[in-house]
Here is the input.
Amino acid sequence: MPNRSSFLTLLLSLSVWSIPSPASSQALIPYTLQLNPEQLEQTGLGLIEEAAQLTRFQQYQLALPRAELATQLAPKSYQTWALLGSLYIQVDRIDEGVTALEQAQKLDPENAPVRFVLGEAYFRKGQYQQAIEQIEAGLKVRSDVPGALFDLGNAYYMLGKYDRAIAEYEKAFAQEKNLWPAVNNIGLVRYEMGDVKGAMEKWQEAIAIDEKAAEPILAMAVALYAQGQRREALAMGETALELDARYAEIEFLRENLWGDRLINDTQKFLSTQEMQETIAQLENSPASVSP
Here is the structure.
């Protein structure tokens, strides 16, 4: 809930013009505030613009109370509910995010971006089929959104529908040629399918797009190590963790959709003496700050 005193202060400031001044001889008596609904709604829309600006700078905690207040002042505006929902997701209040986004969807059922964000929220809740339904509905309205296609691929991947996941990743990459995560994730899927060669080809392609992308570099290192190419694997693994030390954490890898087969091979790779020494050095280095 937004701060109640701030809400009342705002209402008072909007309506002060309508309160008559008492005569000096009168005792203080209560007055009825004459609030202008249109003025309140405009104020709410102004607040949501402020919240959107703060969101662009990732100032989510500052943006959130503005967005919450905006939904009270402009409850019939889908924009206020949509931004509030996306902010809740950013601060890991997923259930509240879903509720706000569902309200936005009721107000504007054909709005594709709302469906895309709602699909992301369902994905975060592990409700992959509902995520697919929302994203696909949004893509029927707007098909030129690579990020939505990428998210759709992720949802199919989590349901074990590997061929469909690859198809969606390929569509996403066809629309945005710098979208290395789509190529990378095709590699993740292929590895889980047992197609190690195909996976490595995709990771090499992802590295060619962005040579500082730690994820495909580490994935390649793990695959090389599993094939017995120890020296090259260890060198690539060190490079990957120097780029982003978070990839030494198994939970972080799972969050990035690394499957059981790849996780198992990664654990073997990271448990080697050489990689343990690399991890220890990075943990003790003041310069090793993850992005």
Remarks:
- The two ends are 32 Å apart (CA to CA).
- The chain is about 70% helix and 0% strand.
- The chain has a mean pLDDT of 86.
